[in-house]
Amino acid sequence: MRAWVLLSAVLWYLTGVGWQRNSERTEKGFIYGKPGHPVKVYVKLHHNSPVLVCMDFKRAEKETVDPTYLWVGPNEKPLTGSNRINITNTGKLTVKDFLEPLSGLYTCSFSYKTIKAETQEEKVVKQRYDFMIFAYREPDYSYQMAVRFTTKSCVGKYNDLLFRVLKKILDNLIFDLSCHIIEPSYKCHFVKVPKHGLIHELFIAFQVNPFAPGWKGTCNESIDCEDTTNHNILQARNRIEEFFRSQAYIFNHDLNKTLPAMHFVDHSFQIVRMDSCRPGFGKNEGLHSNCATCCVVCSPGTFSPDVDVTCQTCISVQIYGAKSCQ
């Protein structure tokens, strides 16, 4: 039996009873340095970084004689090729399978020669380029929803019964997506409706959350499950929206305008997306304007112990991605 039919039956019964993101990417997909200005680069957790070029774009468009490149990582030690670090002979750097501790300042020292044609006199030119690389992940989505139902009275057991039945129907509707309804609540109010006088209405609020018991089983051995959980919560949102659209349709069309005393109030459905970040990550639109919607790794001096949206200050923290103040 479809969920909206089930709720309709209950209502009649009750009535009868009562990205990688960055700032300097070019059309080639490379990120070039800017002399005197650190370039911020954002790399999604467990993904490869974009290609960082050890020169600025103008220099790259010119001939370069005897170029040399030296990359230094966040630990202030020279970088060499490895399973995680790839440096080409033209000074291009890629970091593979990026993790929180790899965040930080990457510096490239670039030198080349200029040669005068008349005298063959050589001059060494040196330049430094700084790249600030931050790990990030997408926020975890949840949805705060609100609906309204008419009722006969603000007193009586049937309001609570409707509330519990509605929650159970919605939970069953999204159960296979490993989502569930949390923090449900309702209040009864008197509403003055034009041409109808005072009407009793239940103002119902609840949150749709993607972490129902057993949710990790949907990850299919994925290292990072946020893409799966966000996909599932979007499906859950769509199902619930369709459910309440069906409620409005059945009462406006199928029942020939004859409504039970307790029914869904058309156009009362409201929804707001709520973002949260995993521990060690947070949002900071001022600091990370090029990745404002991202959960960016907490920098040294900050931490995030839970699923908050911001990193908190802690001067003793000296690492990226701190989950506690120690």
UniProtKB/TrEMBL annotation:
One GO process term, biological-process aspect: acrosome assembly
Signal peptide: 1-19
Record has Nucleotide-binding as a keyword: no
Domain (Zona-pellucida-binding protein 1/2 N-terminal): residue spans on this chain: 38-137
Annotated keywords: Cytoplasmic vesicle, Glycoprotein, Secreted, Signal
Matches recorded under InterPro entries: Ig-like_fold, Sp38-bd, ZPBP1/2_C, ZPBP1/2_N
Chief location category: cytoplasm
Keyword check for S-adenosyl-L-methionine: no
Pfam families documented for this protein: EGF_Sp38_C, Sp38
One GO CC annotation: acrosomal vesicle
Subcellular location: Cytoplasmic vesicle, Secretory vesicle, Acrosome; Secreted
Domain Zona-pellucida-binding protein 1/2 C-terminal, chain residue ranges per copy: 277-325
Family indicated by similarity: Belongs to the zona pellucida-binding protein Sp38 family.
Name by which UniProt lists this protein: Ig-like domain-containing protein
Organism name: Muntiacus muntjak
